[in-house]
């Protein structure tokens, strides 16, 4: 188990209130390394319907394949491949996984987060929070 603050991944501690944890297994076949992991994190989001802040637990599977650096390629080619996210490289002792963890977490966050499936949101006329009950607009419209 690896655990650390969101800031270690270049993420805001305010948006990721708890330490980010991950479990990994690593397999090696010749010069190729495959790291398989599961990331456990909590994202603090704002509901797009009612605008309230809520925490969303995330469990994200990740698989990273890395090849040994310097295997007949020029260093600038490896830099281009890694920068374009086509491949990862290792030096024989270490594979840097931080950017892969960061990317997996950001891709898992919903684009339009909702605090719950049945969130009723805000009244478009008066702005009342409809999860707390009906607003006065509904009765005024009928009169």
TrEMBL record:
Region Disordered, residue ranges: 1-21
Classification via PANTHER family: LARGE RIBOSOMAL RNA SUBUNIT ACCUMULATION PROTEIN YCED HOMOLOG 1, CHLOROPLASTIC
Pfam families: YceD
Protein name as it appears in the record: DUF177 domain-containing protein
């Amino acid at each position: 188990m690896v655990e650390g603050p969101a800031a270690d991944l270049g993420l805001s501690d305010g948006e990721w209130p708890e330490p980010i944890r991950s479990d990994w297994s690593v397999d090696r076949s010749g010069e190729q390394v495959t790291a398989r992991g599961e990331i456990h994190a909590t994202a603090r989001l704002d509901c797009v319907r009612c605008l309230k802040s809520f925490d969303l637990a995330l469990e994200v599977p990740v698989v990273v394949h890395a090849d040994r650096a310097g295997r007949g390629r020029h260093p600038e080619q490896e830099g281009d491949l890694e920068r374009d996210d086509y491949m990862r490289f290792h030096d024989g002792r270490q594979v840097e996984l931080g950017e892969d963890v960061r990317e997996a977490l950001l891709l898992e966050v919903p684009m339009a987060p909702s605090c719950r499936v049945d969130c009723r949101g805000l009244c478009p006329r008066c702005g009342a929070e409809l999860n707390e009950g009906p607003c006065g607009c509904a009765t005024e419209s009928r009169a």
